[in-house]
Amino acid sequence: LEDRIRYRPLHDKITDAQTAAGCILDGTNLFISGFTAGYPKLIPQELVRRAKNGERFKVNLFAGASTGGSVDGILAEADLVGWRRPYMSDRIMRKKINANGINFKDDHLSRLASQVRSGDLGSPDVAIVEAVGITEKGHLIPTMSVGNTPTYVREAQKIIIEISAESPELEGIHDIFIPEDSPWRMPIPIYRTADRVGKPFIEMDPNRVVAIILSREQDSCPVFNPPDDVSTRIAAHILDFIRHEIKRDRMPRNLPWQSGVGDVANAVLSGFIEDDFFANLDIYSEVLQDSVLDLIDLGKVRAASGSAMTLSHKARKRFFNELYRYKEKTVLRPVEISNSPEVIRRLGVIAVNTAIEIDIYGHVNSTHVMGSQMMNGIGGSGDFLRNGAISFIVSPSVAKGGKISAIVPMVSHVDHSEHSVDVVVTEHGLVDTRPLTPRQVAEQIIKKCAHPDYRDMLWDYYQRAVRTTGGHEPHMLDEVFSFHQRFMATGDMHPRQK
Ligand code: 0RQ
What we know:
This protein is an alpha/beta fold. The protein is 31% helix and 19% strand. It contains 17 helices and 25 strands. The strands form 7 sheets. Strands 1, 2, 3, 4, 5, 6, 7 and 8 form an 8-stranded mixed sheet that branches. β16 and β17 (364-365) form a beta hairpin. α2 (42-52) packs parallel to α3, α3 (69-77) packs across α4 and α8 (263-271) packs parallel to α9 (290-297). The chain is globular. The protein binds ligand 0RQ. The site of ligand 0RQ has 28 residues, from α8, β15 and α14.
C-alpha cells in the first residue's frame, strides 16, 4: 500500500465500494476513466447491486470512449444510464440507445474534454478513476488508458479512485498535458510521435478525493481474429499504394500511421510484419492493439503513441513481462492530444478508418446502420480522416453474407464527406479520389471497389442519374435509397429473381 498510495494522508480515504458509491445518486453526472481499457470496475458493480436491491436511480455517464460490458453493459442492463457520451460499443447499451431508452449524443473524441471544461455538459459531480498509484504529492498514475481522465479529475467536485493491482511499472508510460482553452490556446508542442510534452501523472487536488478502494479486477480483453482474406486484401492494397507513392517521391518516408479499431485495422498493421519496405514505423493513433507489440518485437517501431492500449490475454502477458522494453517505445496521452487535429495535421498522419457504408461519390457513413440504428459512434474517425495527410476509408465490399452492399448510391447517414476522404478501399480495389472529379470518383468506385454482384446495379443507377438529372454529382432523388429500401423490405439489397 505504501508503494501504491505514496501520499500518506490519502490512506484515511481507503474504504469499501458500498461506502465509496454513497455519493452517487439519481441524476449524478458521472465522469469515468476508460477508453477501451482502464475503466473502473468495482463502483459500476456496486451501482448494479443497489439497483437489484430495488433502488431506482439513473446516472449520466461520460467516459473517454467505449468501456465494454463491464461498465456500459451492466449499467445499461440495470437501466441505470440517463445520458451516455461519447462513443460506446456495447450490445445492450446500443439496443437501449436505439430504443430511445438511453440519451446518447455522438461527439468527436478530441472535443469532449474541452466541452467538459467549458461547463457545457453540466456540473462534473463525481469522477471515478482507475489508477495504479498515487504519487508523493497526491497525483494520479493511470492504468492502460488516459482518455479524458485528466480533465475529469481536474473538474470533478468529488473523486473516487479504484487502485488497480496492475503493475506499478506502468508509471512513466503516460504523458499528461491539458491544453489551454480558446481563446488562450497555445500550440500543442508535439513535433514528432515520441515527443513528451507533459507530466507522467495526472495532477489532482487530493482534498477532493472522497474514497479510495482497492481492486483486483482486470480489463476484459478483446479477442483479435487472425486477419481473414478480406482484411488481408484491404491491407495489401493500402500498403502497395503507400509504397508506390513513396517510391514515386510523392510522399515522404516515415509519416506516422493511425489505424482504427477492429480486424481490418489490425490487419493493416500486421501487414507490416512481412513487409521489408516499411521500417522505423511511427504510429500516432488512438488505440494501440496487439499488432503494435508484434511490430515492436520485430524492431520495426520507432515510436507508438495512443490514448489507450487494448491487448488480448496473450499480448497482455507479454506486455507486462517486459514492460520496460515496451515502455521505451510507447506513450499514452489524453485523447484530446492523441486525436488533436492540430497535431495530426502537423505530423502528417496516414489515417486508416473503417466505414459501415460508402457512397459512389465518397461520402461515408461510419455510425448508423440503414440510416437510423446507431452502431458505436464516430469515435476518432473524424479527427483522423479530416486531418490526416492522406485518409483511407476502408470496408469489406459487402456485409451480412453479401445481402448488403457497402457501396451504395447515397449513404443513409453522413459522418465524413467526400472532402475528408482521400482513398476508398475494399478487398476488390482502391480509388485515390484526390485527382478525380465526382463523376470520375463514382465511375472508379463502382468499377474497382463495389462487389461484382452489385456493380451492374450501381452502374445502371449512375448512368441513368447522369442522363436524367445530370449535374456535378448526379443523383435521382426518388431512387437514392432504393438499395436500402429493398433491404428493409426483403432482407436483401439484391432484387428478387423474376
Ligand atoms: O455486425 O456484429 O452483427 O456481425 O457491423 O462490422 O465488419 O465486424 O467490422 O468491427 O471493424 O466495425 C464501422 C462499425 C466496423 C467500426 C465499424 C455490421 C457487420 C457487423 C461490425 P455483426 P465488422 P468492425 C477511431 C476508429 C466508427 C468509429 C471509428 C466503427 C458490424 O469500425 O465503429 O472509426 N467505426 N473508430 O455486419 C449493415 C452495413 C454494415 C453492417 C458492417 N453496411 N450495413 N451492417 N455492418 N457494415 C480511430 C482510432 O484510432 C481507433
